[in-house]
Write a structure and sequence with these properties.
The complex is a heterodimer. Helices cover 28% and strands 14% of the residues of chain A. Chain A is α+β, with helices and mostly antiparallel strands. Chain B has an eight-stranded mixed beta sheet with strand order 3-4-2-5-1-6-7-8, sandwiched between helices. Chain B is globular, with a radius of gyration of 19 Å. The chains are: A alpha+beta, B alpha/beta.
């Protein structure tokens, strides 16, 4: 009913589309990365995380934001279940950055936004809910100089 | 470049130097010239000595926006090539006695101006004026580089459109830190923003993240006053005219609130929609 009225009285504006398109295009402008490379990066990131927890691949949201003078990479990776009976028997790390032997760490520190429970399903895309933020230098290959 | 910097340090520091501010946007048609004319008028009305420099060589327009097209005798290149004295080339404004215009060359090409010449010219103007406002051409090529050469501050102009935001983002990247760019959002239509059909100030500046100088509404009076060659800033009773004055006050260093267009009134339909729980996510 409400949806119906909303459709009559004014749908969701195109400004949201504009914003999203801008966000994406500026991300590639800044990084000088092709969308393909971003996809690959995203996939690699998810592959590492899903060794430990089960994530919702469909709803992963990776974005880049300019902050002061650096660029930050923000990723929202909804977790479907923690303590996943994982294939490589390495199931109970503390839900944090997986780094079996430090090799994953060489890329960037990761933290995962836990989005479990029923609320996570079937909701509008979690626009404002990016909880994780990791600073990364514009070039994705280099590791941040830790301390 | 270096020699100029050195001159600045040792050179004529006795008098205080005016501020050179370039108005730029990357994209064309976002209102640089109109804004330059209006901010110049507003600053001059405040009592500052102001010169407007049209850096858009080959596409002179600031003169006609100010209504001075019939008074222009000489242009930037006449001065740079030393055919006339600077004083002869400065056109007094019709309305504000503190305001002068230095017109662009119309029948010349942008690449006939050298960056070092522009720097020297702006340096000269800064000795005589409190504010040198430079109307930058669209684009990021030589014309842009010349326009920013002598400036030490930048005002970037953006309309709430994807193309304009992207271009401003690029321009800000090119400007780097030296120019302390500040943002004016131009041609905002609050009614459209309210209905979610136009990028909002927060949308635009959420992306650009620049200090906000002010917001100018998409105001029909701008078209009318431009037709007549009378900047809207001459009419303080007009909300947009007043907004230019508020921006001028901010530029001058006064601590005034960022001017915003009045929020659009809710239409009956919108009220009905929100009654039925139509709050947007």
């Amino acid at each position: 009913m409400i949806e119906f009225l909303r459709r009559i009285f004014g749908q969701r504006g195109s400004s949201a589309t504009a914003k999203e398109r801008l966000r994406l295009v500026l991300m590639t402008d800044h990084l000088e990365l092709s969308p393909d490379m971003i996809e690959t990066m995203k996939r690699d990131l998810v592959d590492v995380i899903s060794r430990h927890v089960e994530v919702d691949r469909e709803r992963i949201d990776v974005t880049f934001e300019r902050q002061e003078s650096t660029l930050a990479m923000l990723a929202n990776i909804p977790i479907l279940s923690v303590g996943r009976p994982s294939a490589n028997g390495n199931g109970k790390h503390e839900g944090r950055a997986p780094s079996p032997d430090g090799s994953a760490r060489t890329s960037k520190p990761k933290r995962v936004a836990a989005q479990t429970g029923p609320g996570a399903e079937g909701q509008a895309p979690p626009k404002r809910k990016r909880r994780r933020r990791k600073k990364s230098p514009p070039a994705p290959a280099t590791a941040p100089a830790a301390g | 470049m270096e020699s100029v910097a050195i001159e600045r340090e040792i050179g004529a520091e006795p008098q205080r130097r005016g501020r050179a501010i370039v108005l730029t946007s990357g994209k064309g048609g976002v209102g640089k010239t109109t804004t330059t004319a209006n901010l110049g008028t507003a600053l001059a009305e405040r009592g500052a000595r102001v010169v407007l420099v049209d850096a858009d060589v080959g596409l002179r327009n600031l003169d006609i926006v100010l209504g001075l097209e019939s008074r222009v005798k000489y242009h930037v290149l006449d001065v740079l090539e030393e055919r006339v004295d600077l004083d002869e080339a400065l056109v007094p404004d019709k309305h504000s006695e503190n305001l002068r215009l230095l017109a662009a060359a119309q029948s010349r090409e942008k690449d006939e101006v050298q960056t070092a010449q522009m720097e020297a010219l702006i340096a000269m103007l800064r000795e005589r004026f409190d504010f040198v406002l430079i109307d930058c051409p669209a684009g990021i090529e030589l014309g842009f580089r010349n326009a920013i050469a002598g400036a030490d501050e930048a005002i970037v102009l953006c309309t709430p459109e994807v193309s304009a935001v992207r271009d401003v983002d690029r321009v800000v990247g090119l400007l780097g830190n030296r120019f302390k760019p500040q943002l004016i959002v131009n041609r905002l239509r609050p009614q459209l923003v309210k209905r979610g059909k136009m990028l909002s100030i927060d949308d635009v500046n959420g992306i650009l993240r620049l200090p906000l100088l002010g917001v100018i509404a998409d105001e029909p009076e701008i078209i009318i006053t431009t037709n007549r060659g009378e900047p809207l800033a001459l009419r303080k009773e007009n909300p947009t005219g007043a907004a230019y004055h508020a921006i001028a006050a901010k530029i001058a260093g006064e601590d005034v609130p960022v001017p915003m267009p009045p929020a659009a009134k809710q239409t009956l339909l919108e009220r009905l929609t929100s009654l039925f729980g139509g709050g947007r996510s």
